[in-house]
Amino acid sequence: MSTFAEVFGTEPDGVWRAPGRVNLIGEHTDYNDGLVLPIALPNQIQVTASARTDGVIAVASSGQSGVIEFPLADLSPGSVKDWAAYPAGAAWVLREAGYDIGGANLLVDSDLPSGAGLSSSAALLCATAVALLGLHDIKVDPAEVARLAQRAENQYVGAPVGLMDQMASMCCTAGHALYFDIRAMSTDQIPFDPEAEGLSLLVVDVKAPHRHVDGEYAARRKSCEQAAAELGVPALRSVAYEDLDDALARLSDDVVRRRVRHVVTEIRRVEEAVALMRSGRLREVGPLFTASHASLRDDFEITVPELDVAVDAALAAGALGARMTGGGFGGCIIALVETSATASTLAAITKAFAAHSFTPPASLSATPSPGASRVS
Description:
- The structure is a single chain.
- By secondary structure, the chain is α+β, with helices and mostly antiparallel strands.
- It is 39% helix and 22% strand.
- A six-stranded mixed sheet has the order 5-4-6-3-1-13. A four-stranded antiparallel sheet has the order 10-11-9-12. The chain has a three-stranded antiparallel sheet with strand order 2-7-8, sandwiched between helices.
- It is globular, with a radius of gyration of 21 Å.
């Protein structure tokens, strides 16, 4: 692995980081003006940086050879491709917002698995943004950096993502989950310290290739928008849990009905999880995870066999609850387990995968961690 000095021929001015995230509960509720409950992971993207005076951004990755350069003045959506589009997008959006950043050398390093649904793209955007701002000692509210990172991913990279991933990467705190109300644009830090309760949050990457993600995501979103229009509400958040049966009866399509049932019940599950966590009843959150997975499997139909087998194996091994997390069609599951049962739960999932001839899964620790910051 090359050092910054070896790549750029100069010493860095500083190091910045932004974490990935895992969502505890509240899946596909964000674009319905709903509620989400992510934590930041210990796994992160780190950007080592130095300022340049020629108005050029040069980016390199410790995992790849070569340096990609682009003048700040020439940045426009689509002008930089592949992985470098993310740091380019961060630079573009900061300049568009009026922040006086200059050229920079950026070396990107990561221990965050890409393609696992843990928001490596949001972490890269946020880490680059805080590095570019930090080089010029420009202070910006973390939530504003999150909104800018979302804008960069929407408009520069061209991915129609919501705001949860960026808010988690910027605004989470250690030992807490971020209770984010999308409609109100408000956040609250909810105590979440499984270790103190003798519990662990196991994150298992099922190593399933993401299948049809873009088209299926768009289809789910369209169904939700269609249902909101049919019900005469601005978004499905406006459908109260108590009024769900009445709302379902007013819908003409069975598939749309299932999508609505998932969104409304999932928002309710987030509220129930937050209430339990606030009252110190963390073990009781487990069944909400499991109910969420069943809803995502049966009503929203975004699981794949690897996700379902992993959840079933975790529950059979004694997990208090388990669910797929992220956009679906691959990615990860989370399981709330007794700390003493972490190894046996993972072994049970691995054994089940072998029986199905699936690629062996991988796991990582999910200690609730702080959001983006300067390292040195």
